[in-house]
Design goal:
Blueprint (H helix, E strand, L loop, with lengths): L19 E2 L9 E5 L3 H12 L3 E6 L10 E3 L12 E3 L5 E2 L4 H6 L14 E3 L2 E5 L7 E4 L10 H16 L3 H15 L3 H6 L6 H4 L7 H8 L1 H6 L8 H16 L8 E4 L3 H15 L3 E4 L1 E9 L2 E9 L4 E4 L3 E4 L3 H4 L5 H6 L1 H5 L4 E3 L2 E7 L9 E4 L6 E5 L8 H4 L7 E7 L18 H16 L9 E6 L3 E4 L2 E4 L3 E3 L18 E3 L15 H18 L20 H12 L11
Parallel strand pairs: 1-14, 2-3, 2-15, 3-11, 8-18, 15-25
Antiparallel strand pairs: 4-5, 6-10, 7-10, 8-9, 12-13, 13-14, 16-24, 17-20, 17-21, 18-19, 19-20, 22-23
Length: about 575
């Protein structure tokens, strides 16, 4: 927890008219204002409300859920059916998640049970190929290799990659060895060396075959929406290690891959909001935080912009900022930046685009009921025929009765030219993005699987809008680049009553790239900070879950720690 600093007097005016005072609840040190109703903000509100704090959540939109909310096609529901549902991106709850499943188990459903019971296991994943190449469908958790033998692990990983993707044997062996280097590196080397090495350089992609570059160089963008040329090798390795444990069933909390049995808002977010309201949480929608006013080392009050364009003053004892990183940095005025240099460091963080397109089909498609990675797609597409896994019959529940399935696709690369128009997604219109994505899907799955006649309609993430200079994205998220760990703040700041929550806050469990799991952990850490600053109110701490560590790697990491101390490279890092 960083040492708190003291602000030197109040901040100068920042050009905002002094807001009118909103009615503030009496709290006696128990009032919390949470700005942002995404997973991080709702998690912080949940933990604090359970411990008796008076929580008010301010959200700039008219609904809760942030990037995890469902998106409904306007005016698409007829005959008593709900509007056609879509998502900002793909939804997956992996087995190595622990913080998020714990929260899901604590959200009751009106008919009994909890939201966690709405999860459905996915047992297969497909790597689809274009150009007539064979697609590969893999069962989840197929591994039997012993972690205690690094040589065996290298050969097992290399064999699986070679068999699945017909990669050159020498290249797969090298790639597998690089993964094992990351798995067996000590923490000091991970953060002192591999954090600063780009993934593309770490796996020597520039000198390998095109197939290696396409499949193994670009897979981080398929799996984690990271750019191979700039992504931190530590972050990538951490993600692949978690996936390996998932495949082995080690330290997991459920299936290797699970999805909700309905649209996210209906299966999770709406019951969560109902539960929080039952706990006393107050929601103010159409309320966007625009200013934090510091005085004597604390935030004295905040200003929000209302849906009608006015400003309101928000008084609280504790303030939790749970908005995206690109919006959070706009709140850091000179006084706050002077109080906590980590806030100023956030200026160096970068954002990326990773947004969804929904295709509504007139008839079921012959695709697996699981995630499909479209390996050769220039826009790095991953899709899932999500309605195959939903409990309610699609055509009787949503839309006009003619749409029978929802194929959800996430676009992770908005900067590479496409196959249809020869332009990056950013330079297309919304309609062109949809047509381009449809063409890339058909190139991988086949025109017979996705005939044009089966397409009922499409809906692109509403955060993507058209401007004179191309598309704009109202919902980018953190991109883990080399050295970005140094730029990310802790949940507890040096300002006495200011706390941070979001997937851009430092987290310490399994992975640290943008996921619902990291957002949930960050919300827990912010709530724990409030609780500690309030004197450990009610005595109960907020639990965060530690990621699994294979005991078989302990000795290798101990050896590497000594080699790091001596200035020596990792034992397997021969430089070849």
């Amino acid at each position: 927890m960083p040492r708190r600093a003291v602000l030197a007097g109040g901040a100068a005016g920042l050009g905002l008219a002094r807001p009118r005072r909103a009615r503030a609840a009496e709290g006696g040190g128990r009032r919390v204002a949470v700005f942002g109703a995404g997973v991080a903000g709702l998690t912080a509100a949940h933990e604090l409300a359970e411990r008796g704090f008076e929580v008010t959540v301010h959200e700039r939109r008219s609904v809760a859920g942030g990037k995890s909310r469902s998106l409904y096609v306007p005016h698409s529901g007829t005959g008593g059916r709900r509007g056609l549902p879509g998502e900002h991106g793909l939804r997956a709850v992996f087995g190595f998640y622990h913080n998020l499943p714990d929260t899901l188990r604590r959200i009751p459903l009106a008919g009994g049970g909890t939201v966690h019971g709405n999860l459905v296991a996915v047992d297969r994943v497909e790597f689809a190929r274009a150009g007539g190449r064979r697609s590969v469908t893999l069962p989840l958790r197929p591994w039997t290799a012993a972690l205690s033998d690094p040589g065996l692990l290298v050969r097992s990983l290399a064999g699986a990659l070679e068999e699945a993707f017909a990669l050159p044997p020498g290249e797969t062996l090298f790639y597998a060895r690089q993964l094992v280097i990351l798995f067996t590196s000590c923490r000091e080397r991970l953060f002192g060396q591999w954090e600063y090495v780009p993934w593309w350089d770490f796996i020597r992609a520039g000198r390998m075959s095109r197939e290696y570059q396409q499949v193994l160089g670009g897979n981080v963008q398929l799996l984690q929406a990271l750019r191979p040329a700039t992504a931190s090798s530590r972050t990538c390795g951490q993600g692949y290690e978690a996936l390996l444990y998932d495949a082995l069933g080690r330290g997991t909390d459920g299936p290797a891959d699970a999805v909700l049995d309905g649209p996210t808002s209906e299966a999770w977010i709406d019951p969560w909001v109902d539960h929080l309201r039952a706990l006393g949480v107050r929601f103010v929608f159409g309320s966007a935080v625009e200013r934090l006013e510091p005085q004597r080392g604390r935030v004295a009050w905040a200003a929000t912009r209302t849906a009608r364009g006015g400003t309101e003053r928000v008084d609280a004892d504790w303030f939790v900022v749970a908005v995206p990183s690109d919006r959070a940095v706009r709140l850091w005025n000179p006084a706050l930046r002077a109080a906590d240099p980590r806030l100023a460091a956030m200026d160096g963080l970068q954002q990326t685009w990773c947004s969804g397109v929904q295709f509504f089909l007139r008839r079921p498609a012959d695709v697996i009921a699981g995630h499909v990675a479209h390996v050769d797609s220039p826009w790095k597409l991953v899709s899932i025929d999500q309605s195959k896994l939903w409990r309610a019959p699609f055509e009787r529940t949503w839309g006009d009765g003619l749409a029978r399935e929802s194929l959800s696709v996430v676009v992770s690369d908005w900067d590479t030219p496409g196959v249809l128009y020869g332009r990056p997604a950013r330079q297309c219109t919304r309609a062109e993005v949809a047509r381009e994505v449809w063409a890339q899907l058909r190139a991988h799955l086949g025109a017979a699987v996705l005939p044009d006649s089966s397409l009922h309609s499409w809906y692109l993430d509403e955060a993507i809008s058209e401007g004179a200079d191309g598309l704009r994205n109202d919902d980018p998220f953190l991109m883990n680049t080399t050295g970005s760990w140094d730029l990310r703040p802790e949940a507890v700041t040096a300002v006495g009553n200011l706390f941070l929550a979001g997937d851009w806050v430092r987290t310490y469990s399994n992975v640290d790239f943008a996921t619902m799991e990291t957002a949930n952990e960050a919300g827990r850490r912010a709530a724990a900070g409030v609780l500690a600053a309030a004197g450990g109110a009610d005595g109960a701490g907020v639990r965060t879950f530690k990621g699994y560590e294979a005991p078989e790697f302990a000795l290798a990491r101990a050896v590497d720690k000594e080699r790091w101390r001596l200035g020596l490279p990792h034992l397997l890092d021969t430089g070849r």
